[in-house]
Amino acid sequence: MTTTAPASAARPNAEPTGTPAATRIDLGTIAVVHTRHWWRWIFSALLVFVVAQFAWSLVTNDRYMWDTFAQYFFSEPVLIGIGYTLSLTAISTVVGFTLGTVLALGRLSASPLLNAAAWGYIWFFRSVPLVVQIIVWYNLGYLYPTLGLGTPFTTDFWIVEFPTVQLVSAFAAAILGLGLHQAAYSAEIIRGGLVSVDPGQHEAAAALGIPASRRLFRIILPQAMRSIVPNATNEVIGLVKGASVVFVIAIPELFYAVQVIYNRNSRVIPLLLVAVVWYTLITTILSVAQYYIERHYARGAARALPPTPVQRARTWAGVQWARLGDTPAPPGRTDATEPAATSTGGRA
Questions:
Q1: pLDDT surpassing 70 at residue 218
Q2: 42-81 pLDDT per residue, tens
Q3: Lesser CB count within 10 Å: N end or C end of the chain?
Q4: What is the pLDDT of residues 140-153, one digit of tens each?
Q5: CA 145, CA 125: separation in Å to the nearest integer?
Q6: Using an 8 Å Cβ cutoff, are 180 and 125 in contact?
Q7: Average pLDDT, the chain
């Protein structure tokens, strides 16, 4: 006995019954109409116009005095001021983030005393303006003419004694003001990064019997760095510019050096431009360093790191060079753009 399959099953590719072939639409013949973003183009054109207008004024406006700018850009007082600015920033960063790490651990401590002490420090130094702190440290000799070690709760410094004015110099006052002020903000940044790590990481490391110090520095802190680095870099950049407030105690950093020069020759704008360009260069270098530090700590979270700007530039240059036709096609292929044939498991 033989059976006959239905017509629809015998012809799986046949058209459905009652659907004429004339009603089928060839999607390849439909014109694709791209969305026109008129407002985007209008704002882009206005932005290009404003930037071009500003660039034109930089070239044509003689009041910028670019010759004076070039004269003082590498002058000795300016370079000395940059050295002071970088020194203040580097030392204050080390002091601030080292002390800030201790304060952050104190805020996370189970000890009420340590927690309260860390909170009180952060509260006080975030409440007092930075310039006030620097001036207080610079004038500490008015409150305590001498400092030393001796009998407690007395001024009998029989072990060692020295004048406060000699101990707390202008540079030391700037370091104390910047470093202690920065520690209060760094503590909250580090605490926020540590809190952002999944608590399961703490529990798993503790269950494996890993010591607390190793858990912190080898497991928790590297994961927290991904959220710490952007905010920490902002604080370092803020220190570069915040170091300009030490001009109140006559430290010849960059801004102070520029002020001294333009007070003598009355060329205010070109000298301020010198400071602006130097601050911009320093900030740019720190921003590039931030990019690569973030990339380093992203290795544990990303399967494949995105290409760096240098790698993207190399790839783009290679593609453009290949388009010129100078790069020969791989052997055995007639068309460099044709995809290679793949085997489906059978033998040719």
A1: yes
A2: 999 999 999 999 999 999 999 999 999 999 999 999 999 9
A3: N
A4: 888 888 888 888 87
A5: 24
A6: yes
A7: 84
